[in-house]
């Protein structure tokens, strides 16, 4: 079904106005917090969304990496972060829930209808008894995520009241340049995200990787202001989001700002069964238990 240009334009303008109002309100709130001597966005929860069904790798959260389920390794790393007041796993699968409770994690059961990790985080947030200012969406398929990165994106969001979202990038390895599972990112001079893509960005006329250009790899971990996270599911899907299948593009297309920090991190995401062998070899070589 086609959508008229005027209707689409009106919808876009309304969301842009809405984002500006939200941004202004957050800036005022930040000032109020600082005047009272408190930290802005001080209460922080880490949520690890995990689902069993996956077209690329079914049961991925439960795959063992050197004797431990991957979800457990992620949870243990997250608990080392100093900026998190609490860490929970959000899942729609009883097998994952049982596994997580077995190693001591708090679990929030969420519906199967969640379309992505962000929506799962939002549902889990509504079910938590305590109130939080920031939610960190911790990807369960980065079992070697460094707690310093979690702390870094929280601090970045606390320091940027005009942003509703923060995330981390690192240097892109040349061999990952054209891998659609490795999401690339470009940022502006002030450290705000411009675009994310499964393709190589920027893309030059030669069509080849430029060894001198500092391409950036998105690590997937991200934090949200909880006020925005409640709005996020109400935002209609956007063309770029649907084309790239990247949920963060819906944030940018609707006019919201996203703060990005650059970190030095050897990314070891698990997207396919073959990645498990790679990460185990990496851990053995460095005596990582």
UniProtKB/TrEMBL annotation:
Pathway: Nucleotide-sugar biosynthesis; CMP-3-deoxy-D-manno-octulosonate biosynthesis; CMP-3-deoxy-D-manno-octulosonate from 3-deoxy-D-manno-octulosonate and CTP: step 1/1. Its main location: membrane. GO terms for cellular component: cytosol; membrane. It comes from the Eukaryota. It catalyses: 3-deoxy-alpha-D-manno-oct-2-ulosonate + CTP = CMP-3-deoxy-beta-D-manno-octulosonate + diphosphate. One of its GO terms (biological process) is carbohydrate derivative biosynthetic process. The chain crosses the membrane at residues 15-34. This is 3-deoxy-manno-octulosonate cytidylyltransferase. It comes from Daucus carota subsp. sativus. The lineage of its organism: Eukaryota, Viridiplantae, Streptophyta, Embryophyta, Tracheophyta.
């Amino acid at each position: 079904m086609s959508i008229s240009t005027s209707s689409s334009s009106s919808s876009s303008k309304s969301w842009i106005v809405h984002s500006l109002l939200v941004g202004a309100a957050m800036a005022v709130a930040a000032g109020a917090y600082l005047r009272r001597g408190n930290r802005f966005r001080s209460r922080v929860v880490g949520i690890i969304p995990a689902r069993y069904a996956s077209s690329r790798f079914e049961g991925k959260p439960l795959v063992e990496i050197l004797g431990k389920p991957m979800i457990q390794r992620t949870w243990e790393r997250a608990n080392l972060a100093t900026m998190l007041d609490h860490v929970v796993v959000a899942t729609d699968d009883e097998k994952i829930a049982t596994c997580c409770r077995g190693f001591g994690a708090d679990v929030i059961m969420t519906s199967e209808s969640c379309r992505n990790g962000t929506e799962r985080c939002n549902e889990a947030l509504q079910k938590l008894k305590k109130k939080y200012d920031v939610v960190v969406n911790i990807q369960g398929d980065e079992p070697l995520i460094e707690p310093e990165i979690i702390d870094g994106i929280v601090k970045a969001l606390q320091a940027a009241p005009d942003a509703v979202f923060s995330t981390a990038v690192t240097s892109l390895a040349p061999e990952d340049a054209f891998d659609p599972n490795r999401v690339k990112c470009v940022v502006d001079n002030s450290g705000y995200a411009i675009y994310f893509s499964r393709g190589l960005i920027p893309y030059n006329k030669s069509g080849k990787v430029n060894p001198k250009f500092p391409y950036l790899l998105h690590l997937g971990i991200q934090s949200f202001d909880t006020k925005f996270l409640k709005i996020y599911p109400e935002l209609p899907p956007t063309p770029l989001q649907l084309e790239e299948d990247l949920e963060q593009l819906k944030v940018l297309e609707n006019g919201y700002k996203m703060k990005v920090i650059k970190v030095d991190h050897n990314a070891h995401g698990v997207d396919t069964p073959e990645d498990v062998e790679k990460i185990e070899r990496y851990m053995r070589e460095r005596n990582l238990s």
